[in-house]
């Protein structure tokens, strides 16, 4: 009996040491990517400068690291999956995503949740695949996620993952920069992305620049306030560029409801931290304008809660959209209804003119 008890105690001690070692590994390997990082521009665009009084089309899409097909439910949203279904389904879905983006014939594309080397996506370089599909575009990539090996869920650990945001432009990008956003300081920081936005500068004929922002704000937070702080930083940056005489366009996944009445889609489900409305005071002191992609006659949400396969009655919201400076005129903004076949987000599109 004493011998059996001794063995049990030794096994428990080993287990405790392993857990302690893993926790130490997670904390010791945690780091934040430096702010004001210069980003590499891969040049392919044939047009040298943007023009005033000419309509441009921009499409933004969170592609859910290529895994969120309409039958997918993510473990952090209440579902069961932590990896893409298979390498074959992943690459086939990425091919469809790339083809759909190319079909838009947009001047600018902003793409979020693009994995470059991740356990959850079988180490497929998704940015490389998108660049192949979008050959006529200049491209810029900003990393916003580099996690240590996450052991949860135990049945299929999420693993070590690297991901980011990709900007594509048919007009030459002269320079690009990564701006680090504030994030929570508690345990939540270990599961949240290393949030950032990228700033791509595009010359405008006659002087000045079109400053293009690609972003993905925080979702997995304690109460949603950190995303508001991130938004204030973005707005202040855009305001400064506008006052300097430039044209500013921001697009991406705000993880905040951009539609004032979330019940417009017929489904509400509590106060999701990533689906809260933007507090009106966030815009105090700035001239930047919110542009929600919304058609009152045919309201289509941009995002579903991936607590399981897509189904009628699932919580939906519009968190993807645009902000522009007052010297940018928007003639249309809408959601492209894909029925969430390729991602838990629908693409959003905007037509704008520099004035």
Task: Give a description of the structure.
The protein has 355 residues and is of the alpha+beta class. It contains 4 helices and 16 strands. It has 2 domains: 1-30; 35-354, 4-Layer Sandwich (Deoxyribonuclease I, Chain A), CATH 3.60.10. It has helices at 2-28, 87-103, 126-133, 225-243; strands at residues 37-38, 41-42, 55-62, 108-115, 138-150, 159-169, 175-180, 196-203, 209-216, 247-253, 289-291, 303-304, 316-317, 320-324, 328-335, 348-354. The strands form 3 sheets. A 7-stranded mixed β-sheet has the order 1-7-8-9-10-14-11, covered by helices on one side. Strands 2-5-6-4-3-16-15 form a 7-stranded mixed β-sheet, with helices on one face.
Percent range of helical residues: 10-25%
Calculate Rg over CA atoms: 21 Å
Please identify, by name, the CATH architecture of the largest domain: 4-Layer Sandwich
Q: What is the string of helix and strand elements?
A: HEEEHEHEEEEEHEEEEEEE
How many strands appear in the DSSP assignment? 16
The mean pLDDT is: 91
Structural classification: alpha+beta
Percent range for β-strand residues: 25-35%
Number of helices: 4
For the record, what is the CATH homologous superfamily label of the largest domain?
A: Endonuclease/exonuclease/phosphatase
Largest sheet properties: 7 strands, mixed
Q: What is the highest CATH level, the class of the largest domain?
A: Alpha Beta
- The neighbouring-strand order within the major sheet is 1-7-8-9-10-14-11
How many domain regions? 2
